[in-house]
Amino acid sequence: MDTDKAYRIGDLARRFGITTRTLRYYEELGLLQAGNRQQGQGLAHRCYDEKNVIRLKRIQQLKDYGLTLAEIHELFELARKDRSGRAVRQGLAQKYAAKLTEARRRRDLLDHYIDELAWHLEQLDKVDDFFACPGQACETCGWAERCDMHSLLPRPDVAAAGRPAQAGSPAQTGS
């Protein structure tokens, strides 16, 4: 690694596909630290060394894994205080474990959503009128408890069990 290499702010921003404003913001947060300014064409430019390149790569990686800039700052502070790296590895392991748990929970929700969409897509072939309920078909339908339309219908099994039937149901009207 060329430790003497200096990257101007615009060059580093292009290299990482971010804006110069983002680099300045990371600097404000203490995530990056620009070195001396280089003079060029009468202007002074912020410059960053290879250490900042590595830090920026790590920032992007951690952001890709769902960590916030505050969490990243916390990890960078742990790394600065504990040069052995043990504390930052433990902190990162905890954050990754929490992210993994959350990702699995979201995957389960997404799997359920996909199943529901597939089921509803199948049901579109079974009814002609968008607003129609399958009606009597609910009595023999194996999916009655899953159908969101079914939950709106009177339930004769509830009325027969001695519980109040819904208004307008056959148990209440005597039909």
Characterise the protein shown here.
With 175 residues, the chain is mainly α. Among the domains are: 1-64, Multidrug-efflux Transporter Regulator, Chain: A, Domain 2; 128-166, no CATH class. It is built from 8 helices and 4 strands; from the N terminus they run βααβββαααααα. Strands 1-4 form a two-stranded antiparallel sheet. The protein has a two-stranded antiparallel sheet with strand order 2-3. Helix 4 (69-81) packs antiparallel against helix 5 (86-123). The radius of gyration is 30 Å and the shape is elongated. The model is unreliable at 165-175 (pLDDT under 50).
List key phrases describing it.
single chain; 175 residues; mainly alpha; Multidrug-efflux Transporter Regulator, Chain: A, Domain 2; two-stranded antiparallel ribbon; disordered C terminus
Strands of the widest sheet, in order across it, are 1-4
| Oligomerization state | single chain
- Regarding CATH, which class of the domain at 1-64? Mainly Alpha
Number of strands: 4
Q: Helix content range of the residues, please? A: 40-55%
Strand content: 5-15%
Q: Shape from CA axes?
A: elongated
* Major sheet description: 2 strands, antiparallel
Under the CATH scheme, the architecture of the domain at 1-64 is Orthogonal Bundle
Q: Give the overall average pLDDT.
A: 81
The poorly predicted ranges are: 165-175
Cα radius of gyration in angstroms: 30 Å
Cα end-to-end separation: 86 Å
Secondary-structure element string: EHHEEEHHHHHH
What is the count of helical runs? Answer: 8
> Class by helix and strand content?
mainly alpha
Predict the CATH topology of the domain at 1-64. Multidrug-efflux Transporter Regulator, Chain: A, Domain 2
